Automatic annotation (TrEMBL):
Quaternary context: Part of the signal recognition particle protein translocation system, which is composed of SRP and FtsY. Archaeal SRP consists of a 7S RNA molecule of 300 nucleotides and two protein subunits: SRP54 and SRP19.
Gene Ontology biological process: SRP-dependent cotranslational protein targeting to membrane, signal sequence recognition
MF annotations from Gene Ontology: 7S RNA binding
GO cellular component: signal recognition particle
Keywords: Cytoplasm, Ribonucleoprotein, RNA-binding, Signal recognition particle
Coiled coil: none
Transmembrane segments: none
Role according to the record: Involved in targeting and insertion of nascent membrane proteins into the cytoplasmic membrane. Binds directly to 7S RNA and mediates binding of the 54 kDa subunit of the SRP.
Family matches, as InterPro entries: Signal_recog_particle_SRP19 (IPR002778), SRP19-like_sf (IPR036521), SRP19_arc-type (IPR022938)
Family: Belongs to the SRP19 family.
Broad class of where this protein is predominantly found: cytoplasm
The encoding gene: srp19
Compartments in which it is found: Cytoplasm
Stated name of the protein: Signal recognition particle 19 kDa protein
Amino acid sequence: MAYDDDTAIVLWPEYFDSGLTRAQGRRLPTALCVKQPSLDMIAKGAILLDLEYRVIEDKSYPSDWPSKRGCVRVEKGKMKKSEILPKIGEILVKNQK
């Protein structure tokens, strides 16, 4: 399935940040998170999962609107968001070491 901006899944860096609590936006266990992940790291994870993506800078995570860390939007269709998040988390942890 090709990338469609209307149905794309949004991946915020906060989902993968080990320095945040779940209440602050982290979506995964800390074992699958890294300290301050960049948009490039998340995009690399999308590439390795063979997902089409688009990096959007200067966007704010809704609960942390002053910080404009951006987001990565990936195609929907191959996998659900709940399947994509841990796989990208594993890639981030492997590439950090």
